[in-house]
Amino acid sequence: MAKLIAEMEIDAVTMELPDTKTVRLKWPEGYTHDFKTGQFITVYWPDTPTYKRAYSLSSCALDRGFYEVTIKRDGKMGTRIVDWAKPGDKLFVIPPVGKFLPAYDKHLICIAGGSGVTPFRGFVREATRSGLNTKITILYSVRTTNDIIFNAEFRELEQQNPNFNFYVTCTRLAVEDPWTGRRGRINAEWVKEHIHDLSNTVFYACGPNELVEATESLVIEELKVPKEQMKTEKWG
Ligand SMILES: Cc1cc2nc3c(=O)[nH]c(=O)nc-3n(C[C@H](O)[C@H](O)[C@H](O)COP(=O)(O)OP(=O)(O)OC[C@H]3O[C@@H](n4cnc5c(N)ncnc54)[C@H](O)[C@@H]3O)c2cc1C
Q1: pLDDT digit string (tens) for 68-88?
Q2: In a shared domain, residues 60 and 138
Q3: Ligand 1 atom closest to the CA of 236, numbered from 1
Q4: pTM of the predicted protein model
């Protein structure tokens, strides 16, 4: 089946952090597409149609009428979107695809660093709004408390959903910083603390290849979790 590429208007932008922006792309009149939470879209600007980049949906399949993606300032596309994209601009969107899908009948342990947290917002939104009793645990590594994407939204979802927990570890905080949460990198001990029933747990890791591969080796090699119980989304 041919892919329905659509031109979509940006109808809202939100700066999540100084280098990270959420862009809401409005579906054009009559647009409809079957998709799943956790998939990614591919976008390009009308003036550079051969320069395409993929972005995980940070919204979920219950959100109708728009897609949201959350993008970090990076190279050409990341910088153009974070620094320049504004409401009224148009982007072409190749519809969502991908297999990084939440297995809601298991305990989901979602391990992320930096911008890799974006698809997990979709997982938690969907589970919370649907009233699922899926246990979801996010283990999130950031440099400092100023680098936590969706902090307020995840804290709010924690209040609404007793099955969701959002844990942050900071890797580069000053010793005198008042943060009382965890410090240091994600390691096997920390992940292990959150496993309650291993055979009914699925691990997720998403983001730049290096980070995802480090998480894979931690989960599969150090914790001896069967490969089938881990899903990854490598961004390159
Ligand atoms: C399935 C999937 C989902 C994704 N989801 C997200 C998401 O939700 N959010 C997100 O932010 N990203 C996501 N990405 C990554 C995204 O697709 C892009 O790869 C990212 O935005 C960088 O593209 P770019 O055009 O900005 O960088 P490019 O211009 O392609 O540059 C890539 C890297 O090389 C560096 N670079 C470029 N030129 C030079 C140079 N001359 N010298 C030194 N370094 C250089 C850049 O700084 C950058 O780090 C996803 C990727 C995939 C595959």
Answers
A1: 999 999 999 999 999 999 999
A2: no
A3: 53
A4: 0.96
